[in-house]
Write a structure and sequence with these properties.
single chain; mainly alpha; Arc Repressor Mutant, subunit A; two-stranded antiparallel sheet; 13 helices; elongated; disordered C terminus
């Protein structure tokens, strides 16, 4: 009678059968053990079959973690692999602020439920990789065991070659032993294939690409290296960028303004691909076309002053001869052939 029954349930049965609640007529009253207080919690449990997570009591009943840390640990362990658990994402998910969530994550990390590692990707970007551990004690045990493994065992030595079989003493009539083949040399490592260079971005095209306009654009590009040696362009890159500069010149932009737009505010350590940077600026900073200007009316023709050969009065006309009054009074044969100018008036 004094033996403790370890198979007894930890709490009273819920009265559920196959997930269905029995009717009140068939329901038996719950008999509480004498040591259970009537105001204590009672469990009415159902068996989970889908969408559940197993959580250890060492987390759910941790005596040093705050309630926020426990809730964060339960939520993180229930997420699938690859889900985002950064502070910003959790702050958008829960009503607690970023400060309280950050403090809860630090608690989980201090007690071994969370590990955050900073790694560098092949592109050079530094990211944080978060690892959730549902049993910190087991994880620490494996880590300590791995640290105790000697370095010689971690990298096993290659197996030794089998000893040669002892041969009988050679006699004069015995044939010589065949020579062993030389060990094959390892093939030389092939160099890694070079990455294919990406093509340059497209540049704007002028409306009319005249040879003179393209020549002026090429001169602007060739002059960039005198202002910044890092903008030394190849002939192929210059040919690709020349139409873009011609589109700027076509819009009444002077060459000095084009040069200023291409060489201002360069990266401090220099562009990795100067031609790609210039193509980007030529496309994204392209100015609008100039406003339309109507052609100006031709200026009125003003003939010089001349003296009439008959009355010696001054008049304006294209050719020397007689004034309008003299031609009207007595026109000559030469005046009859000469048209009457519109501006032949006296001053």
């Amino acid at each position: 009678m004094d033996t403790h029954d370890i198979s007894a349930p930890s709490h009273a049965p819920s009265g559920l059968l196959d997930g269905r609640r029995p009717s009140r007529a068939n329901q038996r009253p719950v008999v509480r053990p004498p040591d259970v207080h009537p105001a204590g919690i009672e469990h009415d449990n159902s068996r989970h079959t889908v969408r559940f997570t197993v959580i250890g009591n060492h987390l759910a009943q941790h005596d040093k973690l705050s309630l926020i840390a426990m809730g964060l640990g339960l939520h993180i362990q229930s997420l699938p692999t690859g889900a985002r658990v950064d502070i910003k994402t959790l702050a958008c998910r829960f009503p607690e602020g970023a400060t309280r969530i950050a403090a809860g994550l630090r608690e989980l990390e201090a007690h071994g439920y969370l590990r955050r590692l900073r790694e560098r990707t092949p592109s050079g970007r530094i990211v944080t990789r978060t690892i959730s551990c549902n049993q910190p004690a087991s994880a620490r045990h494996h880590a300590v065991a791995a640290a105790r493994v000697p370095r010689a065992q971690a990298a096993p030595a290659p197996p030794a070659a089998p000893p040669d079989t002892a041969l009988p003493a050679a006699t004069p009539d015995a044939c010589p032993a065949p020579a062993r083949p030389a060990p094959a040399r390892p093939a030389p490592a092939r160099p890694a294939p070079r990455k294919k260079r990406q093509p340059l971005p497209d540049v704007p095209q002028p409306g009319y690409s005249s040879p003179d306009l393209l020549s002026a654009a090429t001169a602007v590009l060739a002059d960039l290296r005198t202002h910044d040696p890092r903008l030394l362009l190849s002939a192929c890159d210059t040919t690709h960028l020349a139409p873009g500069v011609a589109a700027w010149l076509e819009r009444d932009v002077p060459p000095a303004a084009v040069r200023h737009a291409l060489t201002t505010d360069l990266p401090p350590d220099g562009p990795r691909r100067p031609a790609a940077l210039l193509a980007y600026r030529l496309t994204n900073q392209l100015p609008p076309p100039p406003p339309f200007r109507a052609p100006a009316a031709p200026a009125a023709v003003r003939h010089p002053l001349r003296n009439c050969d008959r009355c010696d009065r001054a008049y304006r006309g294209p050719d020397p001869g007689h004034c309008g009054d003299c031609r009207a009074a007595a026109p000559t044969a030469a005046d009859a052939r000469r048209p009457d100018p519109d501006a032949s008036t006296h001053p």
